[in-house]
Design brief:
Layout (H helix, E strand, L loop, with lengths): L2 H16 L5 H18 L2 H13 L5 H24 L5 H6 L1 E4 L2 H9 L3 E5 L5 H11 L4 E5 L5 H13 L2 E5 L5 H10 L3 E5 L9 E5 L2 E5 L2 H9 L2 E8 L6 E5 L11 H22 L12 H4 L11
Parallel strand pairs: 1-9, 2-5, 2-8, 3-4
Antiparallel strand pairs: 6-7, 8-9
Helix pairs in contact: 1-4, 2-4, 3-4, 9-10, 10-11
């Protein structure tokens, strides 16, 4: 493990061991302070966040983009402060910490024993949404986690999420898809963060007027298992309660080849994600490149290539 990896692991460990002991108002203030300091430094992540917001809000002035990126960093640090504290939250705090709209799409799907796939973008606090599902709905689920470096940090995240009632599979290794399919055929629930493709087999979609690549997994799983595919978007308001919406199901097209059906369904997911992100751009925590034009250094996207 390199010195940088040891430092990263130690900082996350400090967060989970120390921040969860803070009173909630103190944790909120700490998160805002750290967010504002990071925003003022205008490092690579902040510049990329602002460039992504320039695609979401194309008519925004530089001043508006700066406001959005500052709010975005505060939202991102709220996610981290909440996540560090989630293991210490009571069941009642978790149940009352999330207020999803149209949750009947999810509860009806769970009751049907058909199997349900929840697909969501990196908005607000997806870990809190997951903890709410396992606590308020008393429904366990399976998810996939990106293998982080160092390995000890990945292990921390797996232990953290398993402590919230999730089954966590590694993204790499090639066995996750088969396990997810088995869970769904048994009538289980699968939750996937699904707007950033980590493979070489993603699906091209139109996303805010330009081409991005999103994972094919949710659409393929729905086709192979007949599970219900539900997009979910999340956001914060001025209260301690996170908001969310379960969107109507993405149906499998009646005709077409498997790739054609996968393309149509993934575009429908992208459209649902875009509707939520457009309404609450500051709660979309995308500090990485997403659009194809930004992934190609020869074709810089809005706001530069940071």
């Amino acid at each position: 493990m390199s010195p940088q990896e040891r430092l990263t692991d130690a900082l996350y460990g400090l967060g989970w061991s120390t921040v969860k002991k803070l009173p909630e108002p103190a944790a909120v203030r700490l998160g805002q302070t750290v967010a504002d300091l990071a925003w003022k430094k205008r490092g690579k992540g902040v510049r990329r966040l602002e460039a992504n917001y320039a695609r979401v809000v194309p008519d925004a002035s530089p001043e508006r983009l700066a406001e959005l990126s500052r709010a975005g960093m505060r939202s991102y640090l709220r996610y981290w402060m909440e996540s560090f504290r989630l293991p210490a939250w009571s069941e009642e705090r978790i149940r009352t910490g999330f207020d999803p709209k149209d949750v009947h799409h999810l509860t009806d799907g769970i009751a049907s024993d058909r199997g349900v796939i929840l697909a969501l973008p990196h908005m607000a606090n997806w870990d809190l949404a997951g903890a709410w599902v396992t606590t308020a709905l008393e429904t366990p689920f399976t998810t996939v986690a990106e293998r982080l470096k160092p390995e000890s940090l990945y292990d921390r995240f797996v232990a953290y999420r398993e402590g919230l009632g999730m089954e966590v599979l590694p993204h790499s290794g090639g066995t996750a898809f088969g396990t997810l399919a088995r869970r769904l055929r048994d009538g289980g629930l699968v939750c996937l963060v699904a707007e950033r493709d980590l493979s070489a087999s993603g699906v091209a979609v139109d996303f805010f007027g330009d081409t991005a690549t999103m994972p094919a997994g949710p659409a393929l799983l729905a086709q192979q298992t007949d599970a219900l595919l539900l997009p979910v978007t999340l956001w914060y308001d001025d209260s301690p309660v996170m908001q969310g919406r379960v969107h109507p199901p993405v149906e499998v097209p009646q005709s077409g080849t498997r790739p054609e059906k996968t393309s149509v369904m993934t575009q429908a997911l992208a459209d649902a994600f875009a509707s939520g992100i457009a309404d609450h751009p500051e709660d979309w925590h995308m500090l990485q490149r997403l659009w194809r034009a930004d992934l190609d250094p020869a074709r810089p996207g809005p706001g530069g290539t940071a």
